[in-house]
Amino acid sequence: MNKYYNELKNFQKKIEFYAKEIFKVYGNELQLKLEDYNLLSSKNNVIESSTATGFIIEEFLVSKLEIYSKEHNLPYEYKILRNVGSTTNASYDCWCILNEKIKALVNVKICKDANNAVAAINELHHDYVETNPNEVKCFMVLKIHYSFANSKKDSQRKIMIGKIESYFLEEVDFSNGHKQDHRNWSQNFNASSGRLKVSDKFRSECVVEESEISYAKTTEFIKIMHNPSKQLKYKIGNNSSLMIAEPSEKYE
Questions:
Q1: What's the N-to-C CA distance of the chain in angstroms?
Q2: Which residues, 6 or more positions from 69, have their beta carbon under 8 angstroms from its beta carbon?
Q3: Which alpha helices (DSSP H) does the chain contain, by range?
Q4: Rounded to whole angstroms, how far apart are CA atoms 75 and 82?
Q5: Which residues share a beta bridge with 242?
Q6: Which CB contacts under 8 angstroms, 24+ apart, belong to 149-153?
Q7: What average pLDDT does range 172-194 have in this prediction?
Q8: How far apart are the C-alpha atoms of 168 and 86, rounded to whole Å?
Q9: Under 8 Å CB-to-CB from 230, ≥6 apart: which residues?
Q10: Residue 148 — φ and ψ, nearest 5°?
């Protein structure tokens, strides 16, 4: 048995349970209000077409996870803490220590449509590889799907929480390369500024054998993503994307 992976899977069950319980209190419906006014009331509101809703749900969930896990902090539970400082310069939103052995970094992704982005590769490298390199870590992507609809309870326009799912970066095999976008914030192009992208199809077909799942293995993958020039060649795709040692277009 892979004890490291077993710890990850136990944590996965709990954090998904926490998230579901948090939204369940509100009937999986969230009303977006300011001074008692429903900001979604107008059919011409700009909220539904903006990214603002995602940030609001993310802030709501991360804050609630910290409160919920603190209130239920029994010996067999997990205490989740939010990342201190701006998460725009980090690859994760909150974290937790698993069984006093593993630091779990959790990136909360709020998804209205398909969202395959994980994090900027340079930030991922900094948080996962460079920071406390002797500390064993894992990286979870926690996805919360949502939509907008009129509530069947009171006909108010609300945010409807849908499927909640997650996966670990350690489960994904990047031996044949990875997919990323090429966001860049400096005058000189820096490939590692781009965000790692992992689609459902890529994740289902590029799977690390359970016995081989480890912090060390994923560390090596991220090191290559961050500095591929010594081992791999760049190939710019046709859809504003970058593939390192491109595995196949079938992973789109």
A1: 33
A2: 18, 77, 78, 79, 80, 96
A3: 3-24, 52-71, 121-124, 200-205, 215-226
A4: 20
A5: 180, 236
A6: 151/29, 153/27, 153/29
A7: 74
A8: 23
A9: none
A10: -115, 140
Reported as a single tens digit per residue, the pLDDT across 78-97 is 899 999 876 668 999 999 99
Among 234, 175, 162, which residue's Cα sits nearest to residue 209? 175
- Tokens 């859809």 — which residue? 239
Residue 58 pLDDT class (50, 70, 90 cuts): very high
Q: Is the pLDDT of residue 234 over 50?
A: no
Q: Model pTM?
A: 0.86
* DSSP structure string for 107-174: EEEEESS---EEEEHHHHIIIIIISSTTS-EEEEEEEEEEEEEE-TTT--EEEEEEEEEEEEGGGB--
Instruction: Give the C-alpha separation, 46 to 32, whole Å.
Output: 13
Surface-to-core class of residue 31, CB atoms within 10 Å of its CB (0-12 exposed, 13-18 middle, 19+ buried): middle
pLDDT grade, residue 194 (50/70/90)? confident
Q: Which residue has the tokens 């990286």?
A: 139
